[in-house]
Write a structure and sequence with these properties.
Number of strands of chain B: 34
Largest interface: A-B, 50 and 51 residues
CATH class of chain A: Alpha Beta
Number of domains of chain A: 1
Number of domains of chain B: 5
Distance between the termini of chain A: 21 Å
Shape of chain B: globular
Number of helices of chain B: 18
Order of helices and strands of chain A: HEHEHEHEHH
CATH topology of the largest domain in chain B: FAD/NAD(P)-binding domain
CATH class of the largest domain in chain B: Alpha Beta
CATH architecture of the largest domain in chain B: 3-Layer(bba) Sandwich
CATH superfamily of the largest domain in chain B: FAD/NAD(P)-binding domain
Oligomer: heterodimer
Radius of gyration of chain B: 30 Å
Shape of chain A: globular
Helix content of chain B: 25-40%
Structural class of chain B: alpha/beta
Structural class of chain A: alpha/beta
CATH architecture of chain A: 3-Layer(aba) Sandwich
Chain lengths: ~150, ~650
């Protein structure tokens, strides 16, 4: 994607847990809270299902940023899945840095089923924050991972 | 070779108003995997489903994508449809082009482009989906009902009458909940205890109901049909199996200055007590915070007088684990403390009461035996001001929501006051009167027209204690636009209904969700009002949101019907979304077992090697193991790496 295009609307892949965050995104829809159209949502049963490989693969694939959202601490439908996600994705951030990708291309947060507005806000602010990467290729990432 | 059929729903104008559905169907129709593609006004309607079923047969489709609303809404509908036409029900995927596209995108062109992309991803995904079979699991036909208020009692009685066992768990020492604390009920002025206590007794005597008083739910394991609920009984120091409920211990207890919770803090009780005369069970409980024997090691009066030898100062409480197929949560609400409203003096002025305190004060089982007097000096109040919306409809200091019951109970309180003090004058300061229930508006009119209760539309700014012991209430009459001052002998605050202090903790124990206000969330606000998102756990009463008695009873009955329907199934089927380990790729590191929340992963000997094995009945399908496996030996059905990767590809 060309730099001006991205400055307009960065492409975001969002992994949302089925129980809280996906329902939160649904509520954003029901409540008609608009957010940038380049967000693509992949439902996962739990944020703990998200494998760091999926994040790397998404960035290699050409997404500008990856959002992972799960239930708030203590609210995980599966008890502890969101804690596993938090620990794993903290490591993933460092891995991104190691291969030369800015860790802010990944964002991990909690969105409950009641937080439709928050979901729309998270998408909007994350998209906004990604604009600073406009025109900066993820060269290192491509070299490190595409092979 | 996948032959995918794609069906784009207009959802009336909900989708078609923003998305060019015909163009989506046309563009998607060009994908090589797609054998048939169409758009239709309402896919969930009977003709829509027939269109789908017919196309499966006519075009030899073996995978289906429906692009419509959220799969949370209609996936089961379409699964059933394709199952009827002979396809495995898991060979379908939904593209959420309503909640995720038409409703959140402003520009029509962008919305159409996004819809095409969302559908394309599901076509790619569905081609990698495998036919799956549900897992059959056992079903324990016993229900645990948490909370012994009127809603929980109703649920327990209905389930028990349906022939199933119920364990009714109550945190306090008696059933009854908030309703037992009420004097009379709106809009009929029925005596609350007169209509409640027969139900309490019926529950206690029902052969299918076991009551666990003084008990809380500590831990919940398992899943629908197979919950393991760990109950903890707190120490009561009175052996319920021996106690004959004679009440001698209570009369002989020398500690008489314990604040009485049942009377909402008005009045005192003994250190050993039953909360109220009709308590069920009627077994007294020793309060370890005040008992002389337990705090100072001396006294022992109750033990000496007990003819049954039921006093046991060594009681440590007890823990038990029960098996249950379903759980009904009916934990009710608490009245908000008015302490934050310092301008009203709710926690400081003795004659400024909450609604529940006023209720106790006029009740014949209350601290004054039903005599309405001021707590400060024992005089009869001649002028009472009722202040509405204390903590409700006030996001700055209290809650944003309307508590729903206060308008009506205040009308009732004003009537009760007039019945106690016929020459008295009642004022109600309100924002709006909300009286939508049956006969409710008439009831409010009765207070205003027959009993001359003065309704003043305006929020109270301040309550000030005066030197003569009376209270000056500063209000504004917004209908005439004039400040009003009323000198009152008593002020009653309609304190908000709010979730119990530990509501979130219980939700986390149960694995159910709660809303921004802390009330438990139903599965669907209109169509699944008593279900939670967790299969097998149901809601009843005010724990789900503020409710009056009729609505709480209705929900109790509704939850019971859901439980009975569940228990009527011959075998219970569980989603095939379970993890599976490829024993030949597994290195036996058991990282998967470490992250498994359900202890569903065991070690197993395969071809001479120790490898991981997932027990399908225990697996809940979260996928933590699949994400943790370094060797990618674990596959989660419905959310395999392949399926997720296909869906995320641009």
């Amino acid at each position: 994607m060309s730099a001006p295009e991205m400055a307009r609307d960065p492409k975001i892949l969002a992994f949302l847990c089925r129980w809280c965050s996906y329902a939160g995104a649904d509520l954003a829809g029901t409540s008609r809270f608009t957010y940038p159209p380049n967000v693509r949502i992949v439902q996962v049963p739990c944020s703990g299902r998200v494998d760091p490989v999926m994040i790397f693969k998404a960035l290699v694939e050409g997404y500008d940023g990856v959002l992972v959202a799960g239930c708030h601490p203590g609210d995980c439908h599966y008890g502890t899945g969101n804690y596993h996600a938090r620990r794993k994705l903290a490591v993933a951030r460092r891995l991104l840095e190691t291969v030369g990708v800015h860790p802010d291309r990944m964002f991990f947060t909690w969105v409950s089923a009641a937080e439709g507005r928050k979901f729309a806000e998270v998408c909007t602010t994350f998209a906004e924050s990604l604009k600073k990467f406009a025109g900066r290729p993820k060269t290192l990432a491509r070299e490190a991972l595409a092979k | 070779m996948a032959r995918v059929g794609v069906f784009i729903c207009h959802c009336g104008v909900n989708i078609a108003g923003k998305v060019d559905v015909a163009r989506v169907a046309e563009e998607i129709g060009r994908m090589p995997e797609v054998a048939f593609s169409a758009d239709y006004k309402f896919m969930c309607s009977s003709p829509g489903q027939k269109l789908l079923a017919d196309a499966v047969k006519e075009h030899g489709l073996n995978r289906i994508v429906v692009a419509a609303c959220s799969p949370k809404m209609h996936l089961p509908t379409f699964q059933k449809t394709i199952a009827k036409s002979g396809l495995n029900q898991y060979l379908i995927s939904m593209a959420n082009i309503r909640e995720q596209c038409s409703w959140v995108t402003e520009d029509r062109e962008q919305a159409t482009a996004k819809a095409i992309d969302l559908v394309r991803r599901q076509v790619k995904r569905v081609a990698h989906q495998d036919p799956l079979q549900d897992v059959a699991v056992t079903l324990e036909r016993t229900a645990v009902v948490i909370g012994g208020g009127v809603s929980g009692i109703q649920a327990a009685l209905d389930i028990a009458d349906g022939g199933r066992k119920v364990i009714l768990v109550e945190r306090t020492s008696s059933l009854g909940g908030k309703m037992a604390q009420l004097d009379e009920t709106f809009p009929t002025l029925d005596c609350s205890q007169c209509i409640l206590t027969p139900k309490m007794v019926e529950a206690a005597q029902h052969p299918n109901i076991e009551i666990r008083a003084n008990t809380t739910v500590n831990k919940v394991d398992g899943y629908v049909g197979n919950f393991e609920v760990t109950l903890e009984r707190r120490p009561t120091y009175v052996d319920a199996t021996r106690c004959i409920a004679c009440g001698l211990c209570v009369t002989k207890c020398p500690v008489g200055d314990v604040p009485d919770e049942f009377n909402a803090g008005l009045g005192k009780r003994r250190a050993v007590a039953t909360p109220f005369p009709q308590a069920v069970p009627a077994i007294p409980v020793i309060d370890a915070r005040y008992c002389l024997k337990l705090t100072k090691g001396k006294c022992g009066a109750c033990e000496k007088v007990c003819p049954a030898g039921a006093i046991n100062y060594e009681d440590k409480g007890a823990e038990e684990t029960v098996k249950a197929g379903a759980i009904v949560v009916a934990t009710g609400y608490q009245e908000m403390s008015p302490a934050v409203y310092t301008e009203y003096g709710g926690a400081t002025y003795p004659d400024v009461l909450t609604g529940l305190q006023f209720e106790r004060l006029v009740s014949s089982t209350g601290p004054t035996g039903g005599k309405l007097v001021r707590p400060s000096d024992g005089n009869e109040p001649k002028t009472v001001v009722f202040v509405q919306c204390v903590g409700s409809r006030d996001p700055s200091k209290g809650h944003e929501y309307c508590s729903g019951i206060c308008c009506m109970y205040t009308a009732k309180h004003s009537l009760l006051f007039k019945h106690h003090v016929p020459d008295g004058q009642a004022y109600v300061c309100y924002i709006d009167i909300r009286s939508p229930g049956k006969n409710s508006e008439q009831f409010v009119r009765r207070a205003i027209e027959e009993e001359d209760v003065r309704y003043i539309r305006g929020r109270v700014g301040k309550v000030q204690k005066r030197n003569d012991g009376r209270y000056r209430v500063y209000c504004e009459d917004t209908l005439v636009g004039r400040p009003v001052q009323i000198d009152a002998d008593m002020v009653v605050l309609s304190s908000a209904v709010e979730p119990n202090a530990d509501a979130a903790k219980l939700a986390q124990t149960l694995g159910i969700s709660y809303d921004a206000d802390g009330f438990y969330t139903e599965s669907h606000p209109k169509l699944k009002p008593v279900e939670t998102a967790t299969a097998g756990i149901f809601l009843a009463g005010a724990c789900q949101g503020p409710k009056d008695i009729p609505a709480s009873v209705q929900q109790g009955g509704a939850a019971a019907a859901k439980v009975l329907a569940l228990f009527a199934q011959e075998t219970l089927r569980k989603s095939p979304q379970v993890a599976q380990v490829d024993p030949f790729a597994c290195t036996g590191c058991l990282t998967c077992a470490y992250v498994c929340h359900y202890s569903a992963i065991e070690e197993k000997q395969v071809a001479g090697r120790q490898v991981a094995f997932v027990v399908p009945g225990k697996c809940q399908g979260c996928g933590a193991c699949a994400a943790a496996c370094k060797n990618k030996a674990v596959t989660l059905a419905q959310f395999s790496d392949d399926e997720i990767f296909e869906e995320m590809m641009r």
